[in-house]
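Recall that a protein's primary structure is simply its ordered list of amino acids. Everything else, from secondary elements to tertiary packing, is in principle encoded there. The following example makes that idea concrete.
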Amino acid sequence: MNQHGSTAPLTVLLADGQPAVRQGVRSMVEATGGATVVGEAGTAGELLAATARHRPDVLVLDPQLDDTAGVRMIGQILRLAPDTGVLVFSASDDDRAVVAAFHAGARGYLVKRATAEQIVRGVHAVGNGEAIVDRTIAARLGTLIGTGPRPRSYPFPQLGDRERDVLEHLAAGRSNTAIARELALAPKTVSNRISGILGKLGVADRVQAIVLARDAGLGRPATR
């Protein structure tokens, strides 16, 4: 079931300046079932047109699409299709590029050396409303988004202690399953707590909650 509550295959749009890369990702994504590629784009103009036409569940995007593209394209895409989950698929794992992509609204970030299994898992994670990062980035994610101690005055006083724990893990890019495991909670409990967090923070989805939390300095590696 995808983030919209549907059991239909995820719809995926591929945006990369290299046709061979698009072809390779298409074959990987469609080989395992559960997702179908509904379009491809090789330029920023093609990307905007294809997004408006298909409004896909997942956009697999190389921000260096052409000379006019960049992470700012993510914001344009999300304004055009706010329910689309953006999975960055880039040759760069530069710290600034990673931080910029997530702050622009990306839900996932994979480096182009990722395996077919990682790419497929990334597409499905993003399509199901989860955040995912390349394992090489995950190891330093807390540093990238701020590792200082939890603020003395917690930025979201409307949240209870357990909700704060969940938000901390959410901001670090962990899936519901990982949060449930680390906090010894049932997955359904985590899902319910995230829904409560979204309501209390006044945001529409987990991506907005992640961005809000990271802007407030959350997301350091969990110590509990």
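The first strand starts at residue 10 and ends at 15. Residues 29 and 120 are 6 Å apart (CA to CA).
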